[in-house]
Amino acid sequence: MERRGFLRGAVIGTSAAAFGGSLMRGAAYAAPAQPGAGPYGALGSADANGIMLPAGFTSRVIARSGQTVPGTSYTWHNAPDGGACFADGTGWIYVSNSEINPSGGASAVRFSSAGAVTGAYRVLANTRQNCAGGKTPWNTWLSCEEVSLGYVYETDPYGVNAAVRRDAMGRFKHEAAAADPVRKVVYLTEDETDGCFYRFVPTTWGSLASGTLQVLKAGTATSGSFTWQNVPDPDGSPTTTRTQVSGAKKFSGGEGCHYADDKVWFTTKGDNRLWQLNLTNNTYELAYDDSLVPGGAAPLTGVDNVTGASSGDLYVAEDGGNMEICLITPDDTVAPFLRITGQSGSEITGPAFSPDGTRLYFSSQRGTSGSSSGGITYEVTGPFRA
């Protein structure tokens, strides 16, 4: 991995409370997150599923690639990737992408109010390398193709309505999406070494059928102010979307994206960074950079998918590293939350909380085999803080 040089510029931003929690509102800006003791304590020994967890937490396997989901007749897809949860009456649904090409698509597992699996089914088919995506406020799942000139597909997690390709959201190597109901836009990451960060402004909020694709413009520093500019040709052909606007800020391999409380965070795998945009004052800064951890003791490397809890904690999954999901607290402490053992040839994908915040879902994309056919989807239950 070629690491970019780092020069800390003038500090711009708001408090560490930008992580969406209620702590430290209005406090002075703190440096990017540093290692410390996590809120749940040290990891214990690996359980029967090979997962190391803090005391009080337990894991179970929900599904395995190529095998029927227990309690259903549905065969789970290969290479499970990005995911999200949706309320479903008294229960909920977990949707998961399939990062294979061709075929791809996404599947869903339905749970009862007690957490029992009650069904599983396909929600998207015949697409390419569906990596991450995002949930909309109107309860659809945006499944993103991580291929050149890839599309975003809006899918129905309840399995009723057919998926719809949303051309207006641009054609590029899509990764993740995060909806902002305040500004009524959807943020999009691009998995290219010189990728950009975008937002889609729908003509009508609640419909992604038409709208304007914009790209973030900023300087080359790791903090500063930003603006948005329209992408002239969202179709990306013959000129790629990332090269159409002069001054568009480049990011090294955009990955996960999460919105909460007037902030949006996204990860870049090429430099193991977590970026934060403050949407109230249009500034950006680093929330985490593994190269800024003294002594080479960074707990979080291989940054990838990211999600948030109601507590304001961010959960960042590793692609490689120690196969951990690490959390970053509102007071800028980063610590491992869990570790998957015996699966060094895999990556952790699709972290998402159940609607009540008591269960965390995620996958090991290639499991113990190191192959896309070896994916395993898990659930962790325990005393997550509110």
TrEMBL record:
It holds the Pfam family PD40. InterPro entries: 6-blade_b-propeller_TolB-like, PhoX, TAT_signal, WD40. Gene3D superfamilies: TolB, C-terminal domain (2.120.10.30). It comes from the Bacteria. PANTHER family: MEMBRANE PROTEIN, SLR8030 PROTEIN. This is Translocation protein TolB. It comes from Streptomyces filamentosus (Streptomyces roseosporus).
